[in-house]
Amino acid sequence: MKPIKWQHNLMVLWVGNFITGMGFSMTMPFLPLYIATMGHFTTAQLNLISGFAFAITFLMKAIVSPYWGKLADQYGRKLMCLRASLGMTITITACGLAPNILILIVLRAIQGCFSGYINNANAIMAASVPTEKSGKALGTLATGNVVGTLLGPLAGGALASVFGYRSSFFVTGAMMLVVFLMTLLFVHEVFEPISAKKMAPTKQVFKQLANPRLIWGLFITTLVIQAANMSITPIISLLIKSMLHNQGSVAMTSGWISSLPGIITLIASPILGIVSDHIGPEKVLVGGLAAAIICFIPMSFAQNVWQLGLWRTLLGFSDAAMLPAIQVLMTRYVPQSAFGRIFSYNQSFQAMGSVIGPMLGSVVANAVGYSGVFVMTAVLEGVNMVLLAPVMWGMRKETHAQANHAFEK
């Protein structure tokens, strides 16, 4: 059998992740404005409905991802990428045709149900890349989603301002159709379908993992990272407004401040992926958590946008360290036959972070002010590091002990 050229898969899947990231973020900036055109709502009603319409996609993603993961392990991850991209093509396009808010919310819920391109792209890449290059490959792949999510709001806002709100949905739907065709024609996966009777149940898979505590720790870490990144979403424009004192563009400044970590993550992820291949993903992950704590605490004391922007920029290095390290660790400690299910569970926890983060941010900001959001986030990261670090150090000692025992023999 001819071996798969993982570099070829990486290039195509990077573009797929990029467009998928844009697909989820292009409509975010003007979603409340789009909803406002569908009826007469008070400000409180509009805030509530917009928040629900935003969260329902991620909530449904969290619920259904394990089911798609099971099918991925049974029928192949490429098929799941095709299912996700075609499903998003239809649902996002239909959102642009929604006649009322109820239909829009239902469509966004269905969109969440059909998600799963990125985690299955990670699974395809993890299965095809040599172990010694997994950090670099998965780190590079992670930048596709980051860049797409970063550029999506800018592109969506530009389209909406020129051609109207609905145009962004149609363009995004067309882009997802391109992803479907690219994946169909150019992504190669060697996979033999497994019958439902022969496939091990998910509970048994978790019992057979070499280090199940580590995998569950990585799930929690993914949730915390996403919640930390999203906690600032509800308050960022209000925080920037208070710092600018009505001098300067709040919208533009908020956009740049929000984007800074993503820009750095784009640059640093492949580099830190290579570092992970040399010193071990465990060290890189713990270092990333420590760096996040160091960045979030000073943010709570920031007095102007320059100080906030500096620490947000440095936070990008933390994300660049943690996200690929999690993928590499799961690749190394999970059997290939369970990649689909484990990566899908990880996506579920990430989606839960997208729901929990903004909710926590809003509650804390209302209770103790904007600075409290950063303190809360630093505490979350700190608790996560305290719980995860001993598991990884113990695992690392066990690995070294096994290697020494084998050498002595």
From TrEMBL:
GO terms for cellular component: plasma membrane. This is Drug H(+) antiporter. It is a multi-pass membrane protein. It is found in: Cell membrane. The chain crosses the membrane at residues 12-36, 48-69, 81-107, 169-191, 212-236, 256-275, 284-303, 309-330, 374-393. One of its GO terms (molecular function) is transmembrane transporter activity. Residues 9-396 form the Major facilitator superfamily (MFS) profile domain. Keywords: Cell membrane, Membrane, Transmembrane, Transmembrane helix, Transport. Pfam families: MFS_1, Sugar_tr. InterPro entries: MFS, MFS_dom, MFS_sugar_transport-like, MFS_trans_sf, Tet-R_TetA/multi-R_MdtG-like.
